[in-house]
Sequence to fold (104 residues):
Amino acid sequence: MMEASQPPPPADWLISMVKADLARIVHDTHGGFSHEEASQLVDLILDKIKSALLSGESVKLAGFGSFRVVTRKPRLGHNPQTKAPIQLGPRKQVTFRPSRLLDF
Fold:
C-alpha cells in the first residue's frame, strides 16, 4: 500500500501487459519457439487456468498468487433508468490474491 509521502508512480507504470506481450517474452526467452508456438503456449496455459476455475478449482501459482471463484450473496440493486429496486441474485466472481513474495 502506498504511503501519502511517496510520489505517484511513473506514467509508464499504468501500461497493461497483454497476451501478445507474454507470447513475445516466451519467444524471446526460449529461442526454440516460433512466435506462433509461443502464442499457442500462452493460450494453452490460460485455457487450463480458465477450465480449472470453471470447474470450481482454485489455481495457485507459486511466487505469483492464487485465483479462486467465490459466490457473491444476493443483494438489492436499482434500475438506473427507473430507480426501481430490483433483487439481484447470487453470482460467481474470480478473485486474485497476490503471493507474499510479490512486494507491493
Notes: The two ends are 7 Å apart (CA to CA). Helices lie at 19-29, 35-54. The chain is about 30% helix and 25% strand. The CA atoms of residues 74 and 89 lie 4 Å apart.
